[in-house]
Amino acid sequence: MLERSPLLVAAVLGVLKHGAAYVPVDPTYPPERIDFLLSDLDPAVTGTSRSPGEDLDALPDSRPRAARHGRALVAYVMYTSGSTGRPKGVEVTHRT
């Protein structure tokens, strides 16, 4: 949930360097879509550029874990537009 910035690039590189996966969640998405993505994903860590005073209670607790799909590492999960009315996550992998 980071805006496009140098911080976003650093966060993505850090995630990939540690063998984890990221999910691009645009902070301008409607709240219902963000709620769906976060509940569907159950992410280990959520990065945000929100101020400490903003409501962050809905964000999940940190529980780091490996992101694997068979022998390949999952690089990121991209959600489709949801032609069936419900977005679907697609894992994009890379080999090490």
Q: Give the overall shape, derived from the CA principal axes.
A: globular
* Number of separate strands: 3
Please indicate the percent range of residues in DSSP E strands (runs of 2 or more). Answer: 15-25%
Helical percent range?
10-25%
Query: Could you say which structural class the secondary elements and strand pairing correspond to?
Result: alpha+beta
Low-confidence stretches: 62-66
Q: How would a textbook summarize the main sheet?
A: 3 strands, antiparallel
CA-based gyration radius: 14 Å
How large is the count of helical segments? 2
Mean pLDDT: 75
Terminal CA distance: 26 Å
Run of helices and strands = HHEEE
Output the strand order for the largest sheet: 1-2-3
Structure commentary:
The protein has 96 residues and is of the alpha+beta class. The chain has two helices and three strands, in the order ααβββ. It has helices spanning 6-17, 31-41, and strands spanning 68-69, 72-79, 89-94. A three-stranded antiparallel beta sheet has the order 1-2-3, with no helix packed on it. The longest helix has 12 residues, at 6-17. The radius of gyration is 14 Å and the shape is globular. Residues 62-66 have low confidence and may be disordered.
Tags for this model:
96 residues, three-stranded antiparallel β-sheet
Topology:
Blueprint: H1 6-17, H2 31-41, E1 68-69, E2 72-79, E3 89-94
Antiparallel strand pairs: 1-2, 2-3
Quickly describe the structure.
The protein is of the alpha+beta class and 96 residues long. Helix content is 24%, strand content 17%. It contains two helices and three strands.
